[in-house]
Amino acid sequence: MNQLPDYLQNRQSRGLAERVSQNLGTSSPPYLSLKDNRFTLVDAAGNEQIIPTYEMDPNKLLRGQAPGPYADIVIIDVNNHVSRIFYDQDYDPTAQSYQPPACFSHNGVGPSKLASSPQSPTCAACPNAAWGSATSNVSGKGIPACAQYQLVAVLVAGHDMPFLLRIPPNSLKNYRAYAEQFRGRDFDMDTVLTRLSFVSQGTLVFIPSGWPPQQMIALSDKLYAAKATDAMIGRLDVPIQGMLPAPQTPPQTQPVGFIPPQTTPQQLFGAQPAASQPTPPAAPPTATPATASPSSSAPGGRGRRRNTAAAAPPAQPQQLQAPFMEPQPQVAPQPTFTQPSAQPNSPAQTFGMAPGVPPNAEVTNMLDNLFGK
After folding, report:
1. How far apart are CA 15 and CA 1, in angstroms?
2. Left if phi > 0, otherwise alpha if psi is -120 to 50, otherwise beta: which for 52?
3. Engineered SS bond to 31: which of 6, 142, 164, 214, CB 3.0-4.6 Å?
4. Angle at 24 between CA 119 and CA 82, to 5 degrees
């Protein structure tokens, strides 16, 4: 089944599997369950296997604490964002089937495109993410109705396949404290054997318990290099595009006479080149005498077209200014960035290099007398 026959290799896919995933969601990957304070491995088909390891710490027995289950894992990968999961129905421990959440997100922005009932355009603006939108059944305190989880891909000792570990909200503080122990060290969390155990109902504690076998490290590196855990931890999740608001650009106040970059003289003055006249090749610019009339320009040069009294005014173009500029009233174009000209008949400069202002005669004489000619 891995090698397509020749007659199927060029056949266009109809995207049926993608549509089923969007309609019904995807199946849960193999994961490490924390239900009832037990560590249970659940595969993609729903088959369960309880991890039988129990901690027999003599110090705990002396303090009157009963031994409890634990699981030794190697952390492979961690999602870059904290996931959010919202259920619109209360948890039913007697239910025979798994009910997917109404809304969830693994992308750090907004509801996943696979969410069946998105609650808000973005997670930051969602009322279910606010503290006090729900009440904890354990403590009775206000909590967010949309809970936060950290998705982690792990290898479990004695198994050669990755499992998803959903670190619940009440364990995130302990997980953060565990991660802080590795900051500034020569090794990270993925190079040690991490022991998971429970300190209270549903609350995990993380303890480094030694160095993992070489086989576990080799398999972890192989899975990470192949990006085999990207989908498991939600790294491929994207927000539902239809609910994301368009970015709002605040209005910008441009200085008087502002000309946007890449503005051509035709766009600035509204002149349109004649369709029937071929564009002559550009020639080196020819200086225009200062006494030339405003309507003249060097033939074949880069002179700008100017309206004369006899020429008909050009039609107003269709809103040619840049989109971030405020609409301007339909008036005759006004020259901008105009510098005073020494020649009263010379045309005003509106772009490019403007002519310099003539020096003040009195200031020039003063400097000449001070420093000498």
Report:
1. 18
2. alpha
3. 164
4. 45
State the Cα–Cα distance between residues 214 and 222, nearest whole angstrom: 12
Q: What are the two backbone dihedrals, phi and then psi, of residue 70, each rounded to the nearest 5 degrees?
A: -145, 165
Q: Which has the closest alpha carbon to 347: 300, 308, 301, 299?
A: 308
Strand 83-86 relative to strand 147-156, pairing? antiparallel
- pLDDT given at position 1: 53
Beta bridge partners of 75: 154
Between the CA atoms of 289, 355, 329 and 306, what dihedral angle is there, to the nearest 10 degrees? 10
Say if CB 221 and CB 188 are below 8 A apart: no
3-state secondary structure (DSSP) of residue 290: coil
What whole-number distance in Å separates Cα of residue 324 and Cα of residue 292? 38
pLDDT at 23: 64
* Rounded CA separation 200/50 (Å): 19
**Of 360, 322, 367, residue with least CA distance to 340:** 360
Range of lowest pLDDT (201-205, 215-219, 261-265, 338-342): 338-342
Give 3-state DSSP helix, strand, coil % of the chain, rounded to 5.
20, 15, 65
pLDDT tens-digit series, residues 9-64: 888 888 887 777 666 656 679 999 999 999 999 998 889 999 999 877 666 655 55
Question: pLDDT by residue (tens digit) across 350-364?
Answer: 433 444 445 556 655
Q: What are phi and psi of 270, to 5 degrees?
A: 85, 5
Contacts of 216 (CB under 8 A, 6+ apart): 74, 155, 157, 193
d(Cα 178, Cα 172) in Å, to the nearest integer?
10
The more confidently predicted of residues 180 and 320 is: 180
Which residues neighbour 352 within 8 Å (Cβ) at sequence distance 6 or greater? Answer: none
Q: Indicate the SS3 state at residue 179.
A: helix
